[in-house]
Amino acid sequence: MTKKPITKQIETEVDPSSKIETIRNLLFGESIQQYDSEFETLKKEIETKKSELQSYIDEVRGELMQSIDSLSTDVNIRITDLEDALNEKTETLTEKKVDKKDLSKLLISLGEKIGK
Q1: DSSP secondary structure string, 51-102?
Q2: What whole-number distance in Å separates Cα of residue 100 and Cα of residue 106?
Q3: Model confidence pLDDT, tens digit, residues 56-94
Q4: Is-above-0.85 flag for pTM?
Q5: Angle at 88 between CA 83 and CA 91, to 5 degrees
C-alpha cells in the first residue's frame, strides 16, 4: 500500500507537458525530429515568400501611385487646355456679336443721315 502513494506523488510532481512529450517520443521516436526539421524548413520558406510578396506589393503600389500621379497631371493639363479653348471661343463670339442697342443707334443715325 505504501507504493501507491509514492507513484501518485511522483505523478503529481511530473509536469503534464512532459508526459505528453514522453508519449510523443514513444510513439514517433526519431521521425518527430525529422518532422520538426521539415516544418522549420517550410516555415523559413514561407517567411521568405512572404517577404518577397511584400516587396512585390510595395513595388506595385509605388508603380500604381506613379501612374495615378501621371494620369492626374494629364487630366489637369487637358482640363486647362479645354478651359483655354472655351474662353477663346467665348471671346471670339463676343467680338462677333453685335449689341442690339448699338445696332439700333447706328440704324437710327443712318436713317437720320439718309433723311437729310
Answers
A1: HHHHHHHHHHHHHHHHHHHHHHHHHHHHHHHHHHHHHHHHHHHHHHPPPHHH
A2: 10
A3: 999 999 999 999 999 999 999 999 999 999 999 888 887
A4: no
A5: 125
